[in-house]
Amino acid sequence: MKNLPEINHCIPNPKAYWCPDCKAHNTFDIVSSKSSDLYNCKACGFSSMFSPAQVLPWKNGLFVIAGLSFLIGVSLGLSGDPNYVIPPLLLGAFFGLLAWMMAHYMKKWSAWASAQRRKSSEELRQEALDHPFQPEYDNSADFTEWAEQFLTPEEVERFHEKYGESEDGEKQEAGIVLRVEGEPREPPPSAPGE
Ligand SMILES: [Zn+2]
């Protein structure tokens, strides 16, 4: 069953984070590290979800830097002291490897995205319904960031109003069915101090 009919995680969106293992724009947990934020897929935990639109210029830039480093290494080797040859070649190999890894994931993305674009909207809708992972509503900053990849901030606001909890703690079931896993339905607890 599909929980969030407004967002189809099987429709390619280059600006949205994508999991190459699950082949979908799954929801994620954002883990901040020193250098950058990691987007961990909620379905498989894969920590290298990426936004293809963000990776593309990096991939191209790193290929250029790698190429230039090799050229510098080679020209230094031809013209002068061979001791200066190794550092630019190592640098070139390092950037080349990074660019190659990015190209590897971008290739997966491109193959998936072009296959998806050949499908009808009904096929995509059915695929989203059948996908083993279903994004679920969650009142968190990470979920908001996920939803804002596909919707405007105003639409996300309405999303929270529709799926979120009202002030008295009751689910607002505006024509949607929320999946409650194994939990018996209980009346909402009365607020403390009242
Ligand atoms: Zn995944």
Helix and strand topology:
Layout: E1 28-32, E2 37-41, H1 52-79, H2 86-117, H3 121-130, H4 141-147, H5 153-163
Antiparallel strand pairs: 1-2
Helix pairs in contact: 1-2
Short description:
With 194 residues, the protein is mostly helical. The protein has helices at 52-79, 86-117, 121-130, 141-147, 153-163; strands at residues 28-32, 37-41.
Question: Could you please describe the fold and organization of this structure?
Answer:
By secondary structure, the chain is mainly alpha-helical. The chain has one domain. The protein is built from five helices and two strands. It has a two-stranded antiparallel ribbon. Strand 1 and strand 2 form a beta hairpin. The longest helix is centred in the middle third of the chain and has 32 residues. The radius of gyration is 23 Å and the shape is elongated. The two termini are 38 Å apart. The relative contact order is 0.16. About 6% of the residues have low confidence. The chain binds zinc ion. Zinc ion (ZN) binds next to loops.
